[in-house]
Amino acid sequence: MSKESLSVLATTLLSLVAAFFVSAVIILILGENPVEVFKVFIVASLFSWDGVGFTLFYMTPLLLTGLSVSMAFKGGLFNIGAEGQLYMGSMAVAIFAGSGINLPFYLMIPICILLAFLAGGIWGVIPGYLKVKFGSHEVINTIMLNLIAYGICNYLVVGPFKRQGDQILETEFIAQSARVFRLNKIIPWISESVPVNFALLLTISLCVGYWYFFHKMRYGYEMQVSGHSSEVARYAGINSGRYIILSMFIAGGLAGLVAVHEVMGFRYTFHDNFSRGVGFMGIAVALLGRNNPLGIFMAAFLFGMMNRGSLFIDINFDKLSNDLVIVVQGVIILFAAMSGMFQKLVRSK
Amino acid sequence: MDLLLDASLFASGIRLSTPLILAALGGLYCEKSGVTNIGLDGIMIFGAFSGAVVAFETQDPWWGLLAAIVTGAFISFLHGIASIRYNGDQIISATAINILAVGLPALLSNAIYDSTSVTPNIPNLLPSIKFDFLDNYPILGELFNNYSYLVVGSFLLIPISWYVINKTIFGLKLKACGENPEAAEAAGVDVRLYRMYGVLLSGVLAGLGGAFLSIAHGSAYVRNISSGRGFLALAALIFGKYSPVGVLYACLLFGFADALQIRMQNAFAIPVQVIQIFPFLLAMVILSSFVGRSPVPTAVGKPYVKS
């Protein structure tokens, strides 16, 4: 490992330790024992095969949104819109595959995956286009588009596409041929109750694709140059506007693919308000993973552990709720912004 | 349409403009100093939460107001530490604040009141200014009576901010840090200090904006109480061309759009959700059409590294 990447690793680990320390202090102030809390997180997510399976399940959408945010970072943009993009992708798939349409699975599944990518991608391209065309800031626009996507999806799932004869706010179930397989079909130690599915394999292959794109392809290289500095890009004859739009399209598409995990692999329907912040968690995943696919994988696994463990936090600790995970995530992002502090520490060693 | 446009709509528009004006003025001081703050929304939520908790516990809304100010300042201080002291990315540290604002109030509210989404109703709202003689004139009374001190205060802050930014030494120094920090430093201005002033002012004002929602307009903290107002305030700031008077017009526009949106929910058969997204769509359209013509402080968003 080069000296530079060692220093990045040390800085990241230091900020992670600091974030967990601050979270421990918060837990203490609230009147619970942080050691016990962290123990619950680890036991629930790692100490049984089912726990690991669930951790992988919770990790899948985080890996997708982490890649999405990171993709936009590489293009020089900040995508706070993964939440809206994943909702639009999931709604598109739920409506299409739940419309009663019947195609063989070898057509249905690719079409649905493409649709998820496209719907998320279009929702991502809007702020990219507005940035290139008018110079309006993608941060405000992606946030506005999240709020608009909530409104649209909530309207659709309460109104015209609501499954009839049921109290739950969900769309019609999708066709059998649009459902992807669960991993317990091919991996014997995962029990049937664990919904981790094909989306995980798809996502891991996307991590490899992400690496290939930025390390082996001209497009990836040029996108990185233009994301780093639009002036350098101009001197190099790179059209940075085109790359802003491309990176936001791919970023939105990656977030849209959460549909494969949620709609095609888990619930088989669009469940109102299902995400609960997975899109925002992608920001912490991308920052912690330093926009590197392996780093993103590890960060997503860590947050997968936390999301799995948070189910047991409500039950076991009177003074805590699963919002603890959101706080930990916020503290991690705050320390990522303060990484200057840790860099000084690492350099002075 | 007559039903839609009446005196109570006007009053409701004025009231709903108030949190936007407070947050947008906060953003104004912050951006003028060269620090962008997309964490206004999160700070509003923190202000609303601490205001409601303290107003409930002490039974006195004024203590709640003070708590919101202190909390807002503290939260923005975190943003300042990360982005000014450690030259961190201003968007990232502000995003951290927005995410903490989702988790921390919920966590605390659960620990104190056993509910992650609401705090108990406060017994006394922040008082309103009442002119008894206006009670004799129903329409005038509706238009001009019974505004909270915070509403009146926020409108007074418009000329005050204009004066502070354009006519005082403090304002000149603040603007210099946002336009040309190297020159400001050369002229003896402590850029980091003045940027911190800007950030702290944004925290105080956004905290007040949040408190308005929980102890003056409403009477409790509820989850997601800001409903994106902190972001609309940022849009209003850009639309208002970074001037206090422009901010006033832009916030009135968004405030009235909000009031109209709430009114329309009861009046038409259009689905609620479609009407609710109207202010956000408006913000996007306005941003895209005006951003190029808005005089953004030159050095905004860039950390100032002493050479």
Biggest sheet architecture of chain B: 2 strands, antiparallel
Shape verdict of chain A: globular
Fraction of residues in helix of chain A: over 70%
Taking pLDDT < 50 over at least 5 consecutive residues as the criterion, the unreliable ranges of chain A are none
Give the oligomeric state.
Answer: heterodimer
Please state the structural category of chain A: mainly alpha
Based on secondary structure, the structural category of chain B is mainly alpha
Work out the radius of gyration of chain A. 20 Å
Strands of the widest sheet of chain B, in order across it, are 1-2
What summary fits the major beta sheet of chain A?
A: none
Number of strands of chain A: 0
Q: Kindly estimate the percentage of residues of chain B that lie in beta strands according to DSSP.
A: under 5%
List the secondary-structure elements of chain A in sequence, H or E. Answer: HHHHHHHHHHHHHHH
Mean pLDDT of chain A: 91
Mean pLDDT over the residues of chain B = 90
Q: Which spans of chain B of ≥5 residues are poorly predicted at pLDDT below 50?
A: none
Largest interface: A-B, 49 and 44 residues
> How many helical stretches of chain B?
13
What is the overall number of helices of chain A? 15
